[in-house]
Design goal:
By secondary structure, this protein is an all-alpha fold. It contains four helices and no strands. It has one domain. This is Retrovirus-related Pol polyprotein from transposon TNT 1-94.
């Protein structure tokens, strides 16, 4: 039997979904209202918000329409997931 090869597309999808699931479980951390972020911190915050939006989109795609109506008011993927538990 030869060596096992991994499809790079599958590995990439798994890696991305793992990143999104971390966001779902932990949520994004919003800075305090009076906190001034550095450029690097703002970039990281923007990246986290984008990941959260993508995670919310994945959850919305997987949820029955009737249930979807009740969770559209949630702000983060973590809030959506917690309300479904």
């Amino acid at each position: 039997m030869g060596p096992v090869t991994r499809d790079p597309c599958i590995v990439t999808v798994h890696t991305n979904l793992t990143e999104y699931w971390i966001i779902v479980e932990t949520s994004i951390k919003e800075p305090a209202q009076d906190e001034v972020l550095t450029e690097a911190q703002q970039k990281k915050q923007d990246e986290q918000k984008l990941k959260d939006l993508k995670a919310k989109n994945y959850l919305f795609q997987a949820i029955d329409h009737a249930i979807l109506e009740t969770i559209l008011q949630k702000d983060t993927s973590k809030q959506i997931w917690d309300s479904m538990k």
